[in-house]
Design goal:
Blueprint (H helix, E strand, L loop, with lengths): L1 H17 L4 H16 L4 H36 L2 H13 L4 H14 L4 H19 L6 H9 L2 H5 L6 H10 L7 H28 L23 H26 L2 E4 L10 E4 H24 L1 H37 L2 H11 L4 H16 L2 H23 L3 H12 L9 H10 L3 H29 L3
Antiparallel strand pairs: 1-2
């Protein structure tokens, strides 16, 4: 019965998300409903002492990353830099390679620090124009954008500033550049196999005589390439984010040491505030890098940005609040579920998987799939089982950098089930339905999940990190 209660809570939250209801509202309802059926007297204490505590703790650590990433992405859009990057990529790769062009643009923007939600809005108009000109079915656009933005640059490539690559740093004491060779191998596998799949779908449609399509929804107006910034100028903020992220990752521990403490200036006796720098250095590095990127955009595109900055920044901050609150609510939900007797049965069942890396990968991707969120599912898994994962890694002699990379990549696998927020947003923006385009998104998801097994096998065969 305890297990069924936990399963019912997870299914209820998945159903609510699939139907489009707010996770911020229904995550506590699902969690506390499970507590009510298990131990009614603990509903209020669990809500205040565990759900809210974990939710606020998540926001305390990661909201600045969400906010700065959203603002940076918005400024890239307002400055016209995203259009310049797209135009340059198309000129370099060629209009005949529309799928490759869009994948590269999405990858460049995502790896440069632009939120994947922002990438969807920024790239879709250009994808529609390219696919229309090349007579490629519009229904392939979501799968193409998913490959470029939701996969290898989100959590596989070392140094990516996306939140899925940052969350493990607080649990494993690693940084965003953990296991660089394994991450790169996984990224190359995803890119090659994903492009091969999408190209096979394009050829099959062409052989059947299928074109772009008629009577489609949300069709953007044709884009005109006029008065664009130089491509190198447009790329500079993205390059700076990547470079500064690496520099700050190395520099911050040297400057601050292992811990920092200070006495707040308050009336009466104050306890010193102690900050463990090793657990927060990677997050500080990403925040600092995004700030540098923002300042760079302002320096090179002050006039076009400042005219729309007030409205644009409000939209960006609003989006960051919604995204971070959704994830934080799922994080609180996971903490409550993990405290129930039924979850121990699940954890014990997962413990029967003897291999530490496979155990971690299955646990993370399963919970990411259930919640429909890579960051939310990984947060749930690591909050509940990070100590176990670390102990198993030490016992098997596995570096925590490998645990970081496997957890990050596994989170971006089965998270893209139909109720995933990014999937729903992507289909809404492109004016397509699950029936039209979800098959290709799911195929990319399967490829992404297989890449985790490739990385694990590579580690055991070569010892490469």
């Amino acid at each position: 019965m305890a297990f069924l209660i936990v399963l019912a809570a997870l299914c209820f939250l998945m159903f609510a998300a699939y139907r489009g209801y707010s996770v911020i509202l229904f995550a506590p309802i699902a969690a506390l409903g499970a507590v009510l059926l298990t131990e009614p007297a603990l509903v209020a204490p669990m809500f205040t002492g565990l759900f809210m505590d974990k939710m606020v703790g998540f926001l305390k650590l990661y909201f600045p990353v969400f906010m700065l990433g959203a603002v940076f992405g918005k400024l890239i859009e307002l400055s016209g830099f995203s259009k310049a990057i797209v135009a340059a990529t198309i000129g370099l790769v060629g209009r005949s390679r529309a799928i490759l062009s869009i994948v590269l643009v999405c990858a460049l923007l995502t790896y440069g620090g632009v939120s994947l939600f922002v990438v969807v809005f920024a790239v879709y108009p250009f994808a529609a124009e390219l696919f229309r000109a090349s007579n490629i079915p519009k229904r392939l656009i979501p799968g193409t954008i998913a490959l470029g933005a939701f996969t290898f640059t989100m959590d596989s490539l070392p140094g990516t500033p996306q939140i899925q690559n940052i969350i493990p740093t607080a649990f494993f004491g690693t940084n965003a550049w953990a296991a660089p060779w394994l991450g790169t191998i996984g990224a190359v596998f995803i890119l090659i196999v994903g492009l091969a799949y999408l190209e096979s779908r394009r050829r099959k449609a062409a052989a059947a005589g299928e074109g772009y399509g008629d009577n489609l929804l949300n069709e953007p107006a044709p884009f005109k390439y006029a008065k664009l910034a130089h491509p190198l100028v447009a790329l500079l903020p993205l390059v700076l984010v990547g470079v500064c992220n690496k520099l700050f990752t190395d520099l911050i521990p040297r400057v601050y040491g292992a811990t920092q403490s200070f006495l707040p200036s308050v009336v009466g006796e104050a306890k010193p505030v102690v900050q463990e720098v090793s657990k927060i250095a990677a997050i500080w590095a990403v925040e600092g890098a995004l700030l540098v990127g923002i300042l760079c955009v302002l320096a090179f595109a002050w006039k076009p940005v400042i005219r729309q900055f007030a409205d644009g920044s409000k939209v960006a901050v609003g989006g960051a609040l919604l995204a971070s609150m959704n994830t934080a609510s799922e994080y609180g939900f996971g903490a409550v579920i993990a405290a129930l007797p039924g979850f121990k049965l699940v954890a014990d069942a997962l413990h029967t998987i003897p291999n530490p890396l496979v155990n971690e990968a299955v646990t993370v991707t399963a919970l990411a799939g259930i919640t429909g969120s890579a960051s939310g599912g990984m947060g749930i898994a690591l909050a509940a089982m990070a100590d176990t994962f670390i102990a198993n890694a030490h016992a098997a002699g596995i570096p925590l950098e490998v645990m970081h990379r496997v957890a990050a990549m596994a989170s971006g696998g089965m998270d893209t089930l139909p109720h995933n927020g990014a999937v729903i947003t992507l289909l809404a923006v492109t004016g397509l339905t699950h029936r039209q385009s979800y098959k290709d998104i799911f195929a990319i998801t399967v490829i992404k999940t297989l890449a985790v097994l490739v990385v694990i096998a590579t580690y055991y065969l070569t010892g490469m990190v």
